[in-house]
Amino acid sequence: MVTPGSDSAKVAPDVVAEYTVRALLRTMPAAVPAVVFLSGGQSEEEATVNLNAMNQLKKTKKPWSLSFSFGRALQQSTLKAWAGKQENVKKAQEAFLARCKANSQATLGTYSGSANLGDGASESLHVKDYKY
């Protein structure tokens, strides 16, 4: 997703959507069936809201499906709910299901926001100075 740098101010989801789709239209072949996004350091919720905004862009025909991948933006609140404890498995499963439903709705452009997403959903996943 096209987002400001980690030390910059946040922008509205429709701005992220517009710039991301524009960049994809300029560079991504139409024959590619789908583009799946990692969170790129955004919080779970921020990544979901931005994906939703991209899929709500009606004025621009997008030749590919825009979706999510199984990465930190699906796992953070699940792992936080679980905390490695057997007694938290049900809570973790519920957090994972809520996150998956939210991202599924965002893929359709129908996500309405923060639907019982649990702890960790709004925490930034950015790791400063991370090296690959």
From TrEMBL:
Q: Which reaction does it catalyse?
A: beta-D-fructose 1,6-bisphosphate = D-glyceraldehyde 3-phosphate + dihydroxyacetone phosphate
Q: Which UniProt keywords apply?
A: Glycolysis, Lyase
Provide a Gene Ontology MF annotation, just one: fructose-bisphosphate aldolase activity
Matching entries from InterPro entries are given as: Aldolase_TIM, FBA_I
Biological process (GO) annotations held by this record are: glycolytic process
Pfam families in alphabetical order: Glycolytic
**Biological pathway:** Carbohydrate degradation; glycolysis; D-glyceraldehyde 3-phosphate and glycerone phosphate from D-glucose: step 4/4
Entry EC no(s): 4.1.2.13
What family name appears in the similarity comment?
Answer: Belongs to the class I fructose-bisphosphate aldolase family.
- This chain's protein is named fructose-bisphosphate aldolase
